[in-house]
Write a structure and sequence with these properties.
The protein is of the alpha/beta class. The chain is 38% helix and 12% strand. Strands 1-2-3-4-5-7-11-12 form an 8-stranded parallel β-barrel, surrounded by 5 helices. A two-stranded parallel ribbon has the order 6-8. Strands 9-10 form a two-stranded antiparallel sheet. The model has no long low-confidence stretch (mean pLDDT 95). Bound molecules: 6-O-phosphono-beta-D-galactopyranose.
Length: 505
Amino acid sequence: MATSVFPEGFLWGGALAANQCEGAWNVGGKGLTVADCATYKPHVDPKDYKAQVGMTSEQVAAAVASDDEHEYPRRHGNDFYHHYEEDLDLCQEMGFKTLRVSIQWARLYPTGTEDEPLQEGIDFYRRLFEAMRARDIEPLVTLHHYEQPLALTDLYGGWYDRAVIDYFVRYAKTCFAEFGDLVKYWLTFNEIDSVFRHCFTTIGLLLDRYPADKHEEIIYQSVHNQFVASALATKALHEMVPDAAMGCMLTRTLVYPLDCNPQNMLLAQRENRENYFYSDVQVLGQYPAWVKRYWAKKGIHVDMGLDDEAILACYPVDFISFSYYQSVVDSIDADKREKVGGNLTTGVKNPYLPTSDWGWQMDPDGLHYSLIDMWDRYHLPLFIVENGLGAHDTVESDGRINDDYRIDYFRGHIAAIGAAIDDGVDVMGYTPWGCIDCVSMSTCQMSKRYGFVYVDLDDDGRGTYARSRKKSFYWYQQVVESNGAELDGPFEYPAPADDPGPEES
Ligand code: BGP
């Protein structure tokens, strides 16, 4: 077998988020979340990403009044809440060393503000983490993945009010006290940089409640409150669970200049810096000077507590995690150019890159580039906690799902990670997104599938929720077993009739 460039103990695995997989939206006293309000929207132009995630007060009121799960597919997810044992068996069979999941704040504190957590919620997550440990799967847990209690929107305008900092820290401390013996790797806010792209899912903000000229200031204020909450959660984790580590989580939206026009170079540099603003604060522990100058020029006032900046400086994160799906191109004359969509972003079409079924540009070299760039900037271990291909899968008459396109995608990206490691970058692990098919974040489609494991469920909510192994399941199993050395080797894809089914654990 070829030798591996991946370090021993590399955390191979997969990633899920509670709001897209758990279902059981009204079970165990769980409160409504922002995710429970997201509607099914298959026909939105991917370039018009605001239409995918923009949310109004009227739409939220309609969601609150409705019990429908078809219109609000994240309410049923893939029913991981009831299938997690079987799903973990499949992850174990693929050889997973880790699985990224999230805790729904509203399963513990239905409105986010209760004095005591719900025991039923705690019991569920303890069972889940114990089941992972029983299979030697290291839990990697996000505290806040687009699923905060909806009540905080009415009570505090989402994260606009700093009162939410204390509620979040209390919730985080509950998690560390209840699960700290089982969970050693934590992340605070998923894709914290997405506040400007979709502020309802990230900070529970309904923009129609505020004057338009204040929107930018409100978003900066809210994300400042999240930065402080994240630092205080990091402090609490280090005090309560000294052998645990906290990471930040960034959407890496690598921007290339369209060409070597110096104006385009500067434009791309500025946009990459804007992307790094969030990790700069969480890793370096201070606001970059350009942000404060920008606020001053625009008359933006961010209310900071006396100790806030000291808190940011004292409690930076231990490692950096990020999602990477595609790169973006920009140009000073972008409005005259052909555009493409992406992960809730848009850009100029890159003539060198193929696109996915949803029009996202696939670029493994961009992952290689990003890893080097982030390592050179921060010198902290990097963890790729989301990457993957959303695609239409077909179940053949023999029950097989021949997702060679997904294997090709992963082969390229894993080779890119290996190349970055070879270039001296410290990479901790890799958890492909949606390892078990789940509901899409942007469009709430079930038909946008990312998994190694197929879930029998369609966009209309029809199906048995049965799980089956795609061809990529066996391919990835071999990759993990060889610690990333075997990306091309032959492997068997047994017909589902011969499939042994999940092993008893
Ligand atoms: C990331 C989110 C995930 C996930 C993924 C794929 O930005 O953190 O929750 O869903 O994107 O996006 P989508 O589901 O819209 O295809």
